[in-house]
Amino acid sequence: MKLYLMALGAGLLVGVIYSLLNIRSPAPPVVALIGLLGILAGEQIVPVAKRMMAGEKLSLGWLRSECGEHVFGALPARPGVKDHTSDSGGTPS
What we know:
Layout: H1 2-20, H2 29-43, H3 45-53, H4 60-72
């Protein structure tokens, strides 16, 4: 239930910001999609910052496994191509 209340609160906050910017809902599709992309990208700042502050190296494999799927979703694989993200190390072979 707490998650739903937090989502409602975030939605209310975004609604207030839209109102202050004089953007009416439903926002034009391009504006809404750019806003959603900003939200998804912004969510990735915290895990990347935590990893950097812990002194750990940022690798392309880590970014793909931890950030890429969250931002882009599970992308469809091409037929006949092995899914490298399911390897035990999480990095492409």
